[in-house]
Specification:
Number of domains of chain A: 1
Helix content of chain B: 25-40%
Mean pLDDT of chain B: 89
Low-confidence stretches of chain A: none
Order of helices and strands of chain B: EEEHEEHEHHHEHEHEEHEHEEHEH
Shape of chain A: globular
Number of strands of chain A: 0
Number of strands of chain B: 14
Largest sheet of chain B: 6 strands, mixed
Largest sheet of chain A: none
Radius of gyration of chain B: 24 Å
Radius of gyration of chain A: 19 Å
Oligomer: heterodimer
Structural class of chain A: mainly alpha
Helix content of chain A: over 70%
Strand order of the largest sheet of chain B: 6-7-8-3-9-10
Strand content of chain B: 25-35%
Strand content of chain A: under 5%
Number of helices of chain A: 10
Distance between the termini of chain A: 23 Å
Bound molecules: adenosine-5'-triphosphate, magnesium ion
Shape of chain B: elongated
Mean pLDDT of chain A: 92
Order of helices and strands of chain A: HHHHHHHHHH
Number of helices of chain B: 11
Distance between the termini of chain B: 35 Å
Low-confidence stretches of chain B: 312-317
Chain lengths: 254, 317
């Protein structure tokens, strides 16, 4: 399979997956309602009780919510692939002389592109309730890009899960069951230092914590280098493990 | 070179043996019907032949290419319409076909043009630019079949292609399949319906428990396994039992009176000389005959003999 055809297949597949969002833009809006609810819940209900020295809670919260949104969004990759399996689309694609990895790459790419819109939406909502980037345009863009590639990496985990469970409802549940604790046991909503020791140990090294810290530092100021490197290391590790895993699952999917 | 060659093929799903040492040869340019009940292994065989599943043991070749070793080369020469219509609901009919064209690596313009040709051929032009989720079951089936033809495959695999179609759509589809074969395509289709195999296939293999249990033309199978049946209707319903008694012993087993329509059926072997004798005896007994006919066995008779089961799904085919 030449590189030219692989790329052409990936674009054909991501086009196919994006068409449904273009045709039903409300899908993006609806899938953003949940993160917006979280945002409002934490900003107005719990936020008052959470005091973080030296920073407004809204400013602290928005970078976290952006990460949460892309992670939730990337779980849709698994649901979409399970749906393709259930409807025989994967059979059709596997019977074609197309690139073996394009079905997965086209899907994760499309979900990444969808995440761009969701992130923009969250930033707009954030600005409406008082959030501001405080560390320059370059760093702000960097923050959003990091969130985006983190989502892309998590899409490959979701792809592996979706191909394993082969059923949309199960993929939905199996996607959230491990993502939820990961999201909450991190610096996403509250500083890790407020947690019990045993949980801190986990939260400190979690890919969510280091990524949120990097996104937050790029948005608001503070030490960027260390969390950014750790986050990129996590992203690389996830991609290195889960791309081959997902592709081998795809080859063997029945 | 045969279009399909299967030698001692075996496929296990974990512990389930779905294909059990199968041998099969399908000549090029014909419609080959694979007939078998639920769970016989039809879909499994089709999935192996279309490179979706790897055989556990044995060998399968399509167009001389090994399904495992030469999978990639093979994929550009075959078409598959699976047991369940695989169309993207959110894409229009046209987009579905163009996507498949692109993935076969046709140049963009060719993919577009081919999509239009197929939409016309399958009578979908009016619905071409509607999302496929608005299509009826029959339209989806047609779109699915059209998608399997995008690259003008040399061998086409159809897994239960007419399931869920109404009688008219079914007959239309049969017509299209015959047309394809007249242009040189080889078609392997699976079906649970004897009549479909009978109507459509030049050759039939009967499959059960992952094995081919018999093979031949529809007529060969019928004359090999079925017995001819003499069916008679008499004028006076009260004389039915008497008529049966009068002709007893002439056939290869005892005559029976159909409890529903009152026909008397006598299984016979071969010669029509029996016919004369039957009429003579009835005449002697003073029984007036309304109608008499000798019919060939149906594939249902064959299937019953071979598998000990009736046609699995009796519907109004
Ligand atoms: N993915 C699978 N895992 C385990 N067993 C399977 C799987 N797919 C099929 N089987 C089993 O293999 C056997 C053959 O199944 P197959 O689907 O090939 O039959 P079929 O002839 O197509 O039946 P049908 O007419 O119902 O479509 C059955 O016993 C079935 O239960
Ligand atoms: Mg089947």
């Amino acid at each position: 399979m030449s590189l030219k055809w692989t790329i052409s297949d990936i674009f054909a597949m991501s086009d196919r997956n994006l068409i449904r969002y273009l045709r039903l833009p409300q899908l993006i809006v609806f899938s953003s309602i949940q993160p917006v609810m979280f945002l409002l819940l934490f900003a107005y209900v719990f936020g008052g009780a959470i005091k973080i020295p030296g920073v407004d809670y809204i400013d602290y919260l928005i970078p976290g919510i952006i990460v949460q949104t892309v992670i939730f969004g990337s779980m849709q990759t698994g649901v979409g692939l399970a749906d393709d399996l259930m409807h025989g689309m994967i059979d059709r694609f596997r019977s074609l002389p197309m690139s073996r990895s394009a079905v997965l790459a086209g899907r994760t790419l499309a979900d990444g592109i969808r995440n761009i819109f969701v992130i923009i939406l969250m930033v707009i909502v954030g600005y409406l309730i008082g959030f501001q980037f405080q560390n320059g345009l370059g760093n702000a863009v960097g923050a959003l890009l990091l969130a985006l590639i983190l989502g892309f990496a998590f899409s490959w985990i979701a792809a592996t899960i979706g191909l394993m469970v082969k059923n949309t409802e199960t993929a939905q549940v199996a996607g959230f069951i491990w993502v939820f604790p990961l999201i909450f046991a991190s610096s996403l909503f509250v500083p890790v230092e407020t947690m019990p020791n045993w949980l801190q140990a986990f939260a400190h090294v979690s890919p969510i914590t280091v990524s949120v810290n990097a996104v937050r530092a790029m948005s608001l100021g503070g030490e960027i280098g260390e969390p950014l490197l750790k986050s990129l290391a996590w992203i690389a590790a996830i991609l290195v493990v889960f791309i081959p895993l997902a592709v081998s699952r795809y080859r063997r999917s029945v | 070179m045969p279009a399909i060659e299967v030698k001692n093929l075996t496929k296990y799903y974990k512990t389930v043996k779905a294909i059990d040492g199968m041998d099969l040869e399908v000549p090029a340019g014909i419609i080959f019907g694979l007939l078998g009940p639920n769970g016989a292994g039809k879909t499994t065989l089709v999935r192996i032949l279309t490179t979706l599943l790897k055989p556990t043991a044995g060998e399968a070749k399509v167009l001389g290419l090994d399904v495992a070793a030469d999978a990639q080369a093979l994929r550009s020469m075959i078409g598959l319409a699976g047991q369940y219509a695989a169309v993207d609901e959110h894409l229009t009919g046209r987009e579905n076909l163009e996507l498949v064209g692109k993935l076969y690596h046709l140049p963009n313009n060719d993919a577009k043009q081919r999509a239009v040709e197929l939409l016309e051929q399958f009578d979908l032009m009016d619905a071409a630019d509607r999302p496929a989720k608005t299509y009826s079951g029959g339209m989806r089936r047609r779109l699915d079949l059209a998608a399997s033809l995008v690259a003008k495959p040399k061998v086409l695999f159809l897994d239960e292609p007419t399931t869920g179609l109404d009688p008219k759509s079914r007959i239309d589809l049969w017509k299209m399949i015959r047309q394809l074969v007249s242009k040189g395509t080889t078609v392997l289709l699976t079906t649970q319906h004897l009549e479909e195999a009978d109507q459509l296939a030049n050759q039939i293999a009967i499959i059960n428990h992952g094995k081919i249990i018999d093979q031949g033309t529809p007529n060969e199978l019928k004359s090999k396994f079925g017995t001819d049946i003499l069916e008679l209707d008499i004028v006076n319903p009260d004389q039915r039992q008497a008529a049966a008694t009068a002709i007893a012993g002439l056939g290869i087993s005892e005559p029976q009176v159909d409890p529903i329509n009152g026909y008397i059926r006598l299984p016979i072997r071969g010669s029509t000389a029996i016919l004369t004798e039957v009429i003579r005896r009835l005449d002697l007994a003073g029984i007036e005959v309304k109608d008499i006919l000798q019919r060939r066995p149906t594939l249902d008779d064959v299937f019953l003999k071979l598998t000990g089961k009736h046609e699995p799904e009796v519907d109004n085919l």
